[in-house]
Amino acid sequence: MIKAFLTDIYGGSMPGWPLGSGNNSDEGFSGVNNLGVYQKGGINVDNTNVTLNYTNIEKCNFLRDQLTQVPASVLDPSLNQQYVGEAKFWRAWAYWGMVASVGGVPLILHTQDYTKPASLAVPRNKTSECITQIVADLDSAAMLLPGTYSDPNDYGRITKAAAMGLKGRILMTWASPLFNATGDPTRWQNAYTACLAAVNEATTDGYGLNPNYRSIWYSGQGNPELIMVNQYFYPDHYMNFAPIRPIPYTNGSTGNDQPLLSMLLAYPKRDGSPMEFDTTQLRTNPAYNAQFLTDFYTNRDDRFYATVWVGGTPYPTPDIVPGQTGKETTWDVFQWSATNNAYVNIEPLINGSAAGGDGVGFCERKGLDTLMTAATVVNGAAGAKSFWSPMRFAELLMNYGECANEIGKPNEALSVLYQIRARANVAAGPSNNYGITAASQADIRTAYINERFVEFAFEGFRLADLRRWKRYDILNSEGYRHGLHVALNVGAPLPSPALTSTIMDPTIRANFSAVYVNSLDTDPTVFYNLDLHHWFWALSPSQISLEPSNLPQNNEWGGTFDPLQ
Q1: Alpha-carbon gap, residue 382 to 236, rounded angstroms
Q2: Adjacent-strand bridge partners of 530
Q3: What is the per-residue pLDDT across 368-409, written as a single tens digit (0 to 9) for each?
Q4: What pLDDT does 382 receive?
């Protein structure tokens, strides 16, 4: 029962696949005119607030307090201490989730006695005090947790590397511009030390970069990349990926995380050089357009093909669309319709079905369970599984590299970027720099911003990264949400639906052109306009009203609490 109680804490704490999160930034498009209020800049206390939630913290406190009273005859002391370490990790995780959003919160470290109302009134602690406590919990957890578990049934439990990795992530954010307004260099040094220690511990324990980027999300035990893992399996805890599957390969949901142009262009070519994109040339120079399409489809690093499914290729599931006799290429591409005065999807014309019709012609592919069909996507299928990693070795490595750059160690920072790109099969090139030309601290910082965009696409990092860097200007400079249509040339024949007919074939690709879409939304008032003066969320007014003297509002929202202290 003790173990079951701890398992319940895992169930309430472990993150899952953040499908649809791309719509929060410049990663994905989940429908016309559905850009969030926050992204459009229309924010206020009522629609940009966080309600503090202590559910899992209370469970962790209760477990820790009770474990001090459990005799060795009931629970082996070493296992007792392991459970304490796991509880401390999840308490730190829960506290950081709130502190990262609003700054300091009330620190409650033991089970509360509801029969003593006065003891329940706990004031907000300073952010620095919360960081100190969170780090102390993680240091203690790292001392108590094993590097690995010998029992296969314990796979997925928190390890020493996970505790050290979370500490590094938190101290890096504490050192970033969001919290570090004065640029205190000691914070970056502390973050560097913590992140390097996490990488070293993980390496010692057998973690590392999975040599095949695509396979990261398809294997559990033995997969070196997964520092933390949420295991999806049939029938108890399966993941159907319905929101990111295109019509007709889904059931009850579709259209989330269709890659925006900014993401499609972020992936480098195989030689490491960036994709060239000139809207004027694209429109006026057929040779330039043809070369762009060739590079776009056939000359990208491995992460592009693992993350993005492109129209004009077979969808990677065994589905056979109703009305078809076998598996066929899905032509989720476009042609100009004078009747509609717009580009329309041609898949229904080719396959005679309801296939296609997606807004951009590209879909998220990362981690997709390719065993499922539209018929089984609702109820799952025997053997269907996926592995979501809220923390993987690549993140530990890039956290360390980013901190190295900030304390004046450019060679270490660049070495990490080289490792990340080498794993993606980017060519080293004659200068052995994998296409990375950054040399100054500022340029390397920009390189990290760009590389994290690609490496962690659709993993829920992008908006949080832009926020901690205080770089919402990157989104605002985009203006509208831009798209790319791959369009059939006027007068060109419709492609064959056969599996052997794909846009990867240069003779077929010659019948298409790339078309820049300035705005995927139909409303000219829908564009990125994130507020550059509000970086922390407000506390929920309804929660403040319960304890106004103990829960002062953040100063960005008219209160007296400074989240930077």
Answers
A1: 11
A2: none
A3: 988 888 877 766 666 667 899 999 999 999 999 999 999 999
A4: 60
Partners of 301 in beta bridges? none
**CA distance linking residue 26 with residue 263, whole number of Å:** 7
- According to DSSP H, which parts of 52-159 are helical? 55-67, 77-102, 127-144
Angle value at C-alpha 326, between 323 and 331, nearest 5 degrees: 75
Whether 102 and 563 have beta carbons less than 8 Å apart is answered as yes
Retrieve residue 155's tokens: 């796979």
HSE at residue 74, side-chain half, CA atoms within 13 A, is 10
Bridge partners (DSSP) listed for residue 516? 484
pLDDT of residue 234: 79
Please provide the DSSP assignment of 220-232 as one string: -TT-TTEEEEEEE
Q: Residues 6 or more apart from 428 whose CB is under 8 A from it?
A: 418, 422, 434
Give start and end residues of each alpha helix (H) in 156-301.
160-175, 185-204, 261-266, 279-284, 286-298
pLDDT tens sequence across 16-32: 999 999 999 999 999 89
Which amino acid appears at position 134 of this protein? I
Percentage of the chain beyond pLDDT 90 is 84
Q: CB–CB of 428/434 below 8 Å?
A: yes
In this model, does residue 75 exceed pLDDT 80?
A: yes
Going by the DSSP 8-state scheme, the letter that residue 240 receives in this structure is -
φ and ψ at residue 209, rounded to 5 degrees: -75, 130
Q: Whole-angstrom Cα distance, residue 231 to residue 387?
A: 5
Is the pLDDT confidence value at 366 over 70? yes
Residue 257 to residue 360: CA distance in whole angstroms: 10
Question: In which residue are the tokens 């990157």 written?
Answer: 474
> How far are the Cα atoms of 127, 300, 327, 409, 488 from residue 260, in angstroms, in the given order?
36, 16, 28, 34, 20
Pairwise CA distance, residues 240 & 374, whole Å: 10
**Residue 174 phi, psi (nearest 5):** -65, -30
* Distances from the Cα of 539 to the Cα of 118, 133, 547, angstroms: 22, 21, 12
User: Is the distance from CB of 301 to CB of 453 less than 8 angstroms?
Assistant: no
Angle at 176 between CA 172 and CA 177, to 5 degrees: 170
Please answer whether residues 108 and 122 qualify as being in contact, where contact means their C-beta atoms are separated by less than 8 angstroms.
yes
Q: Classify 257 as helix, strand or coil.
A: coil
How many angstroms separate the CA atoms of 313 and 306, rounded? 14
Q: What is the pTM of this model?
A: 0.96
